[in-house]
Amino acid sequence: MTHERQKAIARNSLLIRSLPEQHVDALLSQAIWRGYGRGETLFLQEEKAQAIHVVIDGWVKLFRMTPTGAEAVVSVFTRGESFGEAVALKNMPYPVSAEAVTACEVMHIPSSVFLSLMRRDPEIGISILASTFGHLHSLVAQLEQLKAQTGAQRVAEFLLNLCDGGDGTCEVRLPYDKMLIAGRLGMKPESLSRAFARLKDAGVTVRRNHAEIADIAQLRDYAESDPAESWSKG
C-alpha cells in the first residue's frame, strides 16, 4: 500500500477527520506505520500505553485473559477504526491485549505528539471525545444485541455489516475465523454453527469462509424482527 493511500485512509478515520485541519499533516508526519503478520502481538495487557492506534488495513482484536486462562474478546477493529485513546492520553496500562487477526497495517501515533498538540490547541480534545463516544456507542450496541437479539439475529447483523448495502443478493467473505466471530458475538462456537443453520431459512448459505445472502432485505427483516418470532422460525 502506498504511503499516500495510507494517509488517505488515516484521514478518513473518525479520530483524524474530526481534528482541526491545520494539525493533520503534522500528526501524520510523526506517526509510526507498521505491518503485522497474522497472530502477531501489537501490545500486551498491563503494558504501559504510549500510542493511539489506527487500523489502516486488515483486522485487529482486543482481548483479555480471564482468571481461568480463557480468552475474552472485547472488540475487533478494521480499516479506519482507532483504539487506545483514553489509556494512552492518561499514561495508563492497557486493560487489554491487541493481536493481528489477519495480516494488517496499523498507524501508531505517539501519545506525546497528541498531548503536545492538545496543549497548543484545546480543540483537539474534541476529536478524542468524538472517538471515545464512538467506542462507547459501539459497546452499547453490542450490549443491546446480547440482551435483545437471538444468536442467529446477531450473526445476521454481523453479515449485514459486511455487505456493501442496498438490496438483492450478496456474497461476503468472513473476515476472520469462526471461533473469533463467535467470541466477538458473545457466543460459543457450537452456538455459531447452530445460528448459521437457522439462517438458511433467511436465505444464507455458508461455505467455508464465504456466506451467500440470497436477499439482503429479507436478512435485514430477520435481524430486526421480534426475537420470539426469530426463535419460532429456527
Automatic annotation (TrEMBL):
Gene3D superfamilies in the record: Jelly Rolls, Winged helix-like DNA-binding domain superfamily/Winged helix DNA-binding domain
PROSITE patterns xref list: CNMP_BINDING_3, HTH_CRP_2
GO cellular component: cytosol
Coiled-coil residue windows: none
Matching Pfam families: cNMP_binding, HTH_Crp_2
HTH crp-type domain segment(s): 149-217
Single Gene Ontology MF annotation: DNA-binding transcription factor activity
Domain Cyclic nucleotide-binding as annotated: residue spans: 15-124
InterPro entries assigned: cNMP-bd_dom, cNMP-bd_dom_sf, Env_Response_Regulators, HTH_CRP, RmlC-like_jellyroll, WH-like_DNA-bd_sf, WH_DNA-bd_sf
Source species, domain of life: Bacteria
Keywords: DNA-binding, Transcription, Transcription regulation
Protein name per UniProt: Cyclic nucleotide-binding protein
